[in-house]
């Protein structure tokens, strides 16, 4: 799976924007959900200030999420099922100034 963090979110991951990852579903599950992916990202990719990316078990308000170029809300949000070939993009729309 390809993950892209943009709009400043890459700074939370040692300034790496694109990640090719292999995330297994939870034990007992046969499909990977966005909820599971977000938990994995928080535990494995985010190196600092996770509160800038996640809030509770979802993304923080102001973070646009696309699954294969489609708004994740149209795909089921946290319950969206992901496959190995999917591309998930996270873009922060919040900027200081």
UniProtKB/TrEMBL annotation:
Pathway: tRNA modification; 5-methoxycarbonylmethyl-2-thiouridine-tRNA biosynthesis. Pfam families: Urm1 (PF09138). The lineage of its organism: Eukaryota, Viridiplantae, Streptophyta, Embryophyta, Tracheophyta. There is a cross-link at residue 97 (Glycyl lysine isopeptide (Gly-Lys) (interchain with K-? in acceptor proteins)). Its main location: cytoplasm. The keyword DNA-binding does not apply. The modification 1-thioglycine is found at residue 97. CDD domains: Ubl_Urm1. It is found in: Cytoplasm. This is Ubiquitin-related modifier 1 homolog. PANTHER family: RURM1 PROTEIN (PTHR14986). It comes from Phoenix dactylifera. C-terminal thiocarboxylation occurs in 2 steps, it is first acyl-adenylated (-COAMP) via the hesA/moeB/thiF part of the MOCS3/UBA4 homolog, then thiocarboxylated (-COSH) via the rhodanese domain of the MOCS3/UBA4 homolog. GO terms for cellular component: cytosol. Transmembrane segments: none annotated.
